Amino acid sequence: KQSESFTNNRLAFLYSFSFIGIAVSAPGIATLFYTVFSAVTEPSTAILDSSPESWQDPAASGLTMLILGGTIWGYLQIKYLSKAEMNEPNTLSMKRIYYTGIIGIGLLIAVAALSTFIFVVLRDVLAADFGYETVRSIRIPVSILLAFAVIVPYHWLLQRTERQQIETDSSTETIRPQKSVTILAPPNSSFFIAQLEDDLGYPVTSVNWADSGAIDLELDIENTVSAADAISGSNGDNVIIIPEPGGLRVYSYD
Predict the structure, then answer these.
(1) Which of 84, 193, 230, 240 qualifies as a FRET site for 106, CA 20 to 30 Å off?
(2) Do residues 156 and 215 touch, judged by C-beta distance below 8 A?
């Protein structure tokens, strides 16, 4: 698929409405599960005596929320969010907030529903009163847990898959041709050298710069990526790096 770049404002808009789609769909899924659960657990005599509206209204409201929220979420995912460039920093931060919100809120709601379920069951078991009323009391928490089982694990797996894909792409992108690299290192440059080796994927040789002016030079760790790119793009198999005020000079030779 073709990737697209989006601005921060547009990504925030898209992920916000995608979250709204999930927030609308989740109660719809829970309502549908509740309707089915009620029909299964209700005695046949109660079903015959009840009016059609007793199940038609919840089913219709659940389907309405599911269709509305699912349409919003599905349209945004297929049309825009699935095409967002995964490795861009703004996309990564928005995805992290989006997944954290869905999974975090979902877990909180699921814990509350599970606590209610356990409390009702234990209460009636200890009172030797486990029966039809117990089943009626746990319909809502069970329906919420089933909705949780549909939404949260899917997004957790999606987040995990995307994270693995990003790690695979990053490892592929950082494979660089190994060269013999020597850096004329001023004092206090160990962190810069360590980060440069990490970006290159192989060790470099450092020699202490003994001239008096070297102490005034400070290597910026933010420049290691550009230095690694310059080393990889140089023509020679041997490279020497000479720091200077404001940057680095990269020379190569055979």
Answers:
(1) 84
(2) no
Beta strands in the chain (DSSP E): 180-185, 205-208, 238-244, 247-253
Please compute Rg for the chain using Cα positions.
30
What does the pLDDT profile of the chain (254 residues) look like in tens digits? Answer: 555 667 778 888 999 999 999 999 999 999 999 999 988 887 765 555 566 667 788 999 999 999 999 999 999 998 888 877 666 667 778 888 999 999 999 999 999 999 999 999 999 999 989 888 899 999 999 999 999 999 999 999 988 888 887 767 655 555 668 899 999 988 888 888 998 888 888 899 999 988 877 888 888 888 888 888 899 888 989 999 998 887 888 999 98
**How far is 217 from 209, CA to CA, in rounded Å?**
10
Helix axes 190-200, 224-233, angle to 10 degrees: 50
- Residue indicated by tokens 């698929």: 1
